[in-house]
Amino acid sequence: MKRSVLFAVLFSLSLHAFAIDTKLMVRAKAKDAKFVGSSIGGAHIIVRNTINGQILAEGITTGSTGNTGLIMKTPKDRFAQLADDKTAGFLAVVDISEPTFVRVEVISPISRKNAQVHASTELWLIPGKDILGDGVVLEIPGFVIDILTPNTHQYIPLESIKSTGLDVKANIVMMCGCPIEKGGIWDSEVMEVKAVVKKDGQVFGELTLANPSRNLFEGNVKIDGAGSYQVLVYAYNPTTGNTGVDIINCVVTE
User: Fold this and answer.
1) Cα–Cα distance between 138 and 173 in angstroms, integer?
2) Which of 6, 146, 209, 252 is the right S-S partner for 217, CB 3.0 to 4.6 Å?
3) Which residues form the signal peptide (predicted)?
4) Distance from C-alpha of 199 to C-alpha of 73, rounded to nearest angstrom
């Protein structure tokens, strides 16, 4: 019995002795924008074996969103690298002894649940053959939208808004946290941003939201009666196809 146990231990050790640490850089990049990094909470990365689902590496992208001029303004040549040593990414170190087909999963941005996108791709990892530089880059489409006014489940007396109307305000940024403003790199003037208001389940009004300052979008809708209201704000860029939505519910009381 002791000899068989010793043999099993030695056999297991011999297998691991041939395993090699293999490095894989994984990055999440916002569609039409920059990399998802520490400033917005990062993207959650999972590298798993496609055969049995075993997680081989897991972590959060950290670092900066990258060089704006290089990413957004410089024409791209073949093999040109977008990331530098400060650009957000997750360096997965995978211990493998043979070529392994893996699935790379990205949940981004991890701390903005109302805007999270799940993206994935698959590739072969070969022992000792590192994939560095830009590495594997997964695109994250969309906008992060946060409705600021009205608040979720807010009770609003009808008399307080009957003459002035209901203010609708939202904060909107790119999926990397990059700013949106008139005339900026991410120009609000080429985007369609609207609020759709429902009363007791029926569409009550639709309004275009103005962009008076960086990331802030606002408008006003007339309210003529008590009821349960839903406010949906969407952003749409017809050039890139980027879309984003946030929804809240509030109650207007007599």
Assistant:
1) 19
2) 209
3) 1-19
4) 44
Reported pTM: 0.90
What are the residues facing 96 on neighbouring strands? Answer: 20
Which residues is 57 bridged to in the sheet?
47
Q: Which CATH number among 3.40.50.1370, 2.60.40.10, 3.90.1150.10, 3.60.40.10 corresponds to the domain 143-253?
A: 2.60.40.10
Amino acid identity for residue 62 in this structure: T
Cβ contacts of residue 135 below 8 Å, gap of 6+? 24, 25, 26, 27, 83, 89
Q: Over the stretch 116-134, which tens digit does the pLDDT of each residue have?
A: 999 999 999 999 999 999 9
- Rounded-to-integer distance, Cα 36 and Cα 217, Å: 23
- Helix or strand (DSSP H, E) at 233: strand 227-237
Q: What's the token pair of residue 229?
A: 């209201």
Residues 51-77: tens digit of each pLDDT: 999 999 999 999 999 999 999 999 999
Find, among 110, 126, 98, 92, the residue nearest to 42 by Cα.
110
